[in-house]
Amino acid sequence: MKALKNEDGYTLMELLVVLVILGLIAGIAAPQIMKYLGRAKSGTADLQIEAIVSALDFYKMDAGTYPTTEQGLNALLEKPEDAKSWFGPYVSKQSNILDPWGEPFKYRYPGEHGDFDVYSWGADKREGGEGDNADIISWEP
């Protein structure tokens, strides 16, 4: 039988110190990452609203008017029964009319702030709020 060589390795204490350091780094970095993620979702919602506004303008060019509130943004995907001239779909898929938090964008025609209003209530899914919970809107505040 062969004798075992003396091999160097890490002690349990060294491994615990490394784990504590990694935990501290994660504790500091995680809130920053979550903050950036929230901002990214709000930015995505802004871009989606811009795309929806453009799609609504194309819809109006074809149909002569914007979809009614009752028809909603689904009119950009499927031809409404009473639409005379519809050359859509004006958005490529259902997810294009959902905000980054999985809720359908709100739509109102005629709008209170313009021809129409498109908006999302943000991360908290309630009207109002600040930061990640702020409403994302198609009009100038």
Strand order of the largest sheet: 1-2-3
Mean pLDDT rating: 87
Question: What share of the residues lie within helices?
Answer: 25-40%
CATH superfamily: Glycoprotein, Type 4 Pilin
Radius of gyration: 26 Å
Q: N-to-C terminal Cα separation, in Å?
A: 82 Å
Note the total helix count: 1
- Tell me about the largest β-sheet: 3 strands, antiparallel
Query: Unreliable runs, pLDDT <50, ≥5 residues?
Result: none
SSE layout:
Layout: H1 12-63, E1 106-108, E2 117-120, E3 136-137
Antiparallel strand pairs: 1-2, 2-3
Could you describe the 3D structure shown?
- The chain is mainly alpha-helical and 141 residues long.
- It has a single domain, classed as Glycoprotein, Type 4 Pilin (2-Layer Sandwich), CATH 3.30.700.
- The protein has one helix spanning 12-63; strands spanning 106-108, 117-120, 136-137.
- The chain has a three-stranded antiparallel sheet with strand order 1-2-3, with helices on one face.
- β1 and β2 form a beta hairpin.
- The chain is elongated.
